Amino acid sequence: AVSCSSEKECDRQRALVSEQGMQDLASRALCFAAWFRCFRDPISQKHCETPLPNMLWCDVHGQWATSWAPTHEDEELQLSGMPGQAVSEIQSISLPSWVYILALASWVQGTFAALRAAWWVSDCYTQSRDFDPYVAQGSRVLPLKACAVAMAVPLITGLLGALIAAPLFRITVRNLWRDGAGSANAFADVGRLHHQLATAFTVAFCASEAFTAVFAYCLIAYFKNWSTDKGQRVAISALCCAAASAAGAASGWVGASDFRQMTDPSAGLAWDLLVLLVSTGFSQILSLVLVPVSIFMLLWDTPGIGDILKYAMKFQSFQWSEWWHQRGAGSGQWSQLVLLIADIEIDEGFVPSMLNMGMDDGHLFLKFYCSDTPHDVALTRSHAVRWQGGDEHVVQKFEGEDIFVNFTDPLTLLRVDVMFQEETSTRPECVASTIWDPWCTPLLDKYFHNFKLCHQKASDGDFWNPKDVFHPDGRPVSGVFLELELNLTRHRTECRPEMGLLRFHATHMGGFGGKRKIRTQPWSQPERLMALGDTMHGKEQVFWRRNIVAVEKDDFEDGNFHRDPEEEKKERQRLAHRHQLRYQLEHESSPHSAHSLLQPAERHQVPGQNPMPPQYVTFTTTSVDTSGQ
User: CB pairs under 8 A, 24+ apart, for 545-553?
Assistant: First the structure.
């Protein structure tokens, strides 16, 4: 009895078994004859030799009952009806254990690299928020979620890659097998199908894990600007292990295909490799889609980071929609933000805190700036502090103040310093400060509300006019501003209003990309041609720069401006003349006095020379005594 899948296959296997049986019977007959001549033949001379060189199994000196008895393996082969050649081929395509060990090692190392990268991303964002407790609380579980994604994505891609490779290989080589039974032979055998699925899964798994390792390496390099981090070294190790394991699994896939039994072995090998490449490419594309999408979904609900991602997606969709409907969307970027601050006041215990610090009468002003540009500040006008007996409900108002702060990076924050200068002091000092994150959904959504009010009127550039968000009487348009309250602290380690509350209204005033006419040719006429302040026009359209002279004298040694004696004398005369002229013009002492003092200098120009610069009014010498000036 033989196992077969069709009548034709059964006939072929019966013929094969019959032929092998006859050959085996002849070999056994020769072995029996040689054994008989060696021990039992009473007539002929004793002759003990192996009948044929390839019959080493025949022991002419042993016992016949044990020498020709089939082994246990031969019994299983006869019972199963499977030829010995098929058994050896199935055993030869099994993958060595080191392939699976390297694949497992790459999986563990790639997961650690992804965990390390997620930690760095979370740490970078938390650091940009000065390790705020609320932000740290929201991003605490982010690395663990990223670790789970890094573990699941290679398994999913490997499984899908194996399910694609095996059927695709069956379809492509179904007409290349001998006797027209190609695909049936390849998939009827459960062992061969098992090895094909195992090798295809390993190759796709390692390809996906290699992508995960490269992604983690690049993520750490982008956020930390490093190339020797522990996570990066582990990612490189994971990439090497994945490459070695994929190479071993690919060799096993080629061995499991059995292309030598096809009518055209070269074509079968080519299709075999092509199917493997298609499966590997599919796993890479799937990893390219799954990894960013999974990370995006994890960050979507993270406080702070999720607000930025939502706004970026909504901003780009809005810009594309405006461009599609030809309404002229602005050229700004989502990462650019112009913040308008108005109606500023300080309340809730600021005055008692100042009195407790021993402050006296003085002036108060505020500094607004970004966290990455501490010297690019916007200041309010100074106001005298309103004490009113130390009442804690006295409000320090900064009326009529409109502050603009520019942001170019979503990792920057708004910083506010409360500056106070006493009457007896020469320099102001910071008495309180606070920080606010403008990259939040309530403020970012104001862009789309204010776009309808300001964009169509901003014909000169992307900068929106703040007058468009106010009524003619100064009242703000409904829905434009947000009212904010921030805790003022002195050391920024308290989550309570240590120095009172800072209240103000804020809104989003678009970006500042700047509209420019698109030039199709580099020699085309520019939109505008303007001269710098130190550019001078010469003869025949020749331009030159004013000379920059280095100051060599010490003019500010003691804080006062010093001149040379000659310069000091000329300056005193000039001031005296100006004072006399002003006095005469005011009192109209003489109708001709002004004309006697003012005489325009004559302009002499030689033909052929450059035009002289314009001459302004000069003062003539008078008899005014300058000794008392």
Answer: none
Strand (E) or helix (H) holding 591: none
What residues form DSSP beta bridges with 416?
368, 434
Chain centroid, CA 481 distance in Å: 31
Q: Please name the residues in contact with 322: beta carbons below 8 A apart, sequence gap of 6 or more.
A: 328, 329
Question: CA–CA separation, 190 vs 197, rounded Å?
Answer: 11
Q: Which of 207, 171, 215, 202 is nearest to 280 (CA)?
A: 207
What is the three-state SS of 306-363? HHHHHHHHHHHHHHHHHHHCCCCCCCCCCCCEEEEEEEEEEECCHHHHHHHCCCCCEE
- Which residues are CB-contacts of 455 (< 8 A; sequence separation ≥ 6)? 328, 330, 464, 510
Asked if residue 337 lies in contact with residue 312, where contact means CB atoms within 8 angstroms, the answer is no
Q: How far is the C-alpha of 41 from the C-alpha of 233, rounded, in Å?
A: 78
Ordered DSSP codes for 48-64: ---SSTT-TT--TTS-H
Q: Are 381 and 398 in contact (CB under 8 A)?
A: yes
Angle at Cα 38 formed by Cα 32 and Cα 40, nearest 5°? 80
This model's pTM is above 0.90: no
Grouping H, G, I as helix, E, B as strand and the rest as coil, residue 384 is strand
The torsion angle over the Cα atoms of residues 558, 559, 560 and 566, rounded to 10 degrees, is: 60
Q: Is the separation of the CB atoms in 422 and 446 below 8 Å?
A: no
- φ, ψ of residue 94 to 5 degrees: the values are -70, 135
Going from the first residue of the chain to its last (629 residues), give the mean pLDDT of each consecutive group of 10, the final group possibly shorter. Answer: 58 62 69 69 60 66 50 43 44 74 94 92 89 87 90 92 86 68 48 82 93 92 83 93 92 78 77 89 90 86 88 88 67 83 87 82 91 88 78 80 90 92 85 92 91 72 79 87 91 78 91 64 73 81 80 58 76 85 68 43 46 42 42
Report d(CA 169, CA 177) in Å as an integer. Answer: 12
Q: Report d(CA 280, CA 188) in Å as an integer.
A: 25
Question: What is the identity of the amino acid at 613?
Answer: P
pLDDT of residue 560: 61
| Cβ atoms of 114 and 149 closer than 8 Å | yes
- Residue 174 burial class via C-beta count within 10 angstroms: exposed 0-12, middle 13-18, buried 19 and up: middle
**What letters, b where the CB count within 10 A reaches 16 and e where it falls short, cover 327-349?**
eebbebbbbbbbbbbbbbebbbb
Q: d(Cα 499, Cα 501) in Å, to the nearest integer?
A: 7
For residue 567, which of 579, 555, 581, 584 has the smallest C-alpha distance? Answer: 555
- SS3 state at 329: coil
Q: For the chain, report the end-to-end CA distance as a whole number of angstroms.
A: 133
Note whether 438 and 308 are within 8 A (CB).
Answer: no
